[in-house]
Target: 4-hydroxy-tetrahydrodipicolinate reductase
Amino acid sequence: MIKVGIFGASGRVGQLIIHEIGAHRNMEIGAVFVRKELDFSLPEGSFVTNDLDAFIQCCDVVIDFSSKEATNALLRALDSTSSPIPCVVGTTGLDEQDFALMESCSKRAPILYASNMSLGVALLRQIVEQVAAKLTHADIEISEIHHRHKKDAPSGTALSLAESCAKGRKQPLKEILVTDRVSKGARKDGELSIVSLRGGDVAGRHCVGFYLDGEYLEFTHNATNRLTFAKGALECAAWLVNKPPKLYSIDEVFA
Ligand code: NAD
Model:
């Protein structure tokens, strides 16, 4: 049995992961990290702790859907432990320091980062890279909408789709990305812009548009249920658990 550690266990995705583990014949809850007191129910016998080192020691693999600050603390603990373990990171809104920590951890244990754990988005990234390379004159505009509680903007998924388009165009994303149309004014040739909307309980919708004179193409992914992310994360964890140390992408899981 693979013992899974759940970090961010009381959250929207964390709760679904706990629920979904029960459907896996070769996975069980190894440990659950809680910040304060336990305010949700767990299968009997689950190990619950607010001690990061004890948490890590009780798991074969950790799945993280928490917050930037929490992920940073988890990665620091993984980086300094004497017995590192695999980790699937799903938290978004991370910065360069967090990614540098991930790189460091991945020297001693397999780490997988995915801003979106769905197969549909993994495919969409491949598609938009090809279209961006073919339609070299199209204006690329990405729009995304998420529930009212989402903290980061643009979403990690929108940024990863933008990254794929920039790769297709063979341009560094930071040179063409616009996330604030108000201060930038009229569109310039070659720009790639992202617009973020927040409201209601939307699990996640991303639309990548390629706009030409006389016609346009739009590719849209709708997440209709957060269970998609929980299932994808568990699939990644099962795939990652016996891999050699490296920083993996979800494309390698769905290859
Ligand atoms: P949420 O706010 O419902 O849950 C966050 C969880 O993290 C809670 O359990 C909270 O207690 C815990 N947490 C927050 N700060 C903490 C801290 N400092 N120390 C310890 N624990 C802490 O959020 P959510 O909707 O479940 O999303 C969590 C993260 O996952 C977000 O960054 C979100 O953008 C991202 N996300 C990623 C995907 C994906 O497919 N990769 C999908 C959905 C959400």
Observations:
- The pocket of nicotinamide-adenine-dinucleotide is lined by residues 8-14, 35, 65-67, 69-70, 90-93, 114-117, 150, 229 (CB under 6 Å).
- The longest helix spans residues 119-134.
- Residues 2-113+227-252 form a domain with the Rossmann fold fold (CATH 3.40.50.720).
- The chain has ten helices and twelve strands.
